[in-house]
Write a structure and sequence with these properties.
By secondary structure, the protein is α+β, with helices and mostly antiparallel strands. The protein contains three helices and nine strands, in the order H-H-E-E-E-E-E-E-E-H-E-E. The strands form two sheets. It has a five-stranded antiparallel sheet with strand order 3-2-1-9-8, with no helix packed on it. The chain has a four-stranded antiparallel sheet with strand order 4-5-6-7. Strand 5 and strand 6 form a beta hairpin.
Length: about 160
């Protein structure tokens, strides 16, 4: 750098007032976007849940009416002290997923599966809110919350 450039840097302020204004506006924008994404999430409790395998609904359960409907012979439902234990078997008979439906906490959780070595679906948090879902890709299984405000995606 030349001596003139160094002297110019020394005499001028490193930030002008409009530089600081731009930084403050950018910081406010980032905070506003963060707040909008985090706090706009629909955190209502689920009213119903459905289990989908290979894009076909195989079970629905309504927490309000305690009504369960199964649409497949590969679904086995057992009653437990907290609700229901649902076992879904693959069509080949080799794969399975066990889900616990807790009627008191209004939650659904995968408690056992033989889908893969890491069993990601078992380590997913239980479904408790409208926007929650659990996916088991090796078994093509989706457990998703259903409510009046959130409609499930259409697949096909």
């Amino acid at each position: 750098m030349s001596r003139k450039t160094i002297e110019n840097i020394k005499t001028n302020k490193p930030f002008m007032w409009w530089d600081i204004l731009v930084y403050v506006l950018l910081a406010l924008l980032v905070v506003g976007l963060f707040w909008g994404i985090v706090w706009s999430k629909d955190n209502d409790k689920i009213t119903a849940v459905e289990i989908v395998q290979n894009d076909i609904v195989i079970l629905t359960y309504d927490f309000a009416t305690d009504e369960m409907k199964t649409y497949s012979s590969f679904v086995k439902v057992d009653t437990t002290s907290h609700g229901y234990m649902v076992t879904v078997t693959n069509q080949d008979g080799k794969g399975f997923n066990k889900m616990a439906i807790n009627i008191y906490e209004k939650s659904v959780d995968v408690v056992d599966a033989n889908c893969s070595r890491s069993k990601e679906c078992m380590h997913t948090r239980p479904i408790t809110h409208n926007t929650d879902s659990i996916i088991c890709m090796p078994h093509s299984l989706i457990i998703r919350a259903v409510s009046d405000t959130i409609k499930p995606p259409i697949s096909g």
